[in-house]
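## retry 2 of 3
previous attempt timed out at serialization; input unchanged, resubmitting
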Amino acid sequence: MLKENRKMEIRSEISIEEKVILNDALDGINGFKFDPITVITNGVEDYYFICKVKVIIKSLRMKIAKVHVRVSNNNPQLLRIEGIE
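## retry succeeded, writing output
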């Protein structure tokens, strides 16, 4: 099975569908509120969200994060959260 190599696209406007994908992937993560600023996507399965992060616990100092989500079979899966300094 060959995968089509698609170019990544950067957008500052996040669609409602993309917000749903992000919220579904982050479901169950407590103590953080992720507010998406930008989305980087190939339009098929990989989504990288750049988010402002609000934390409930002040000792956690993440202010901006990159969230990597992969969608397979209409099921968003959280792959990674990276803090950006």
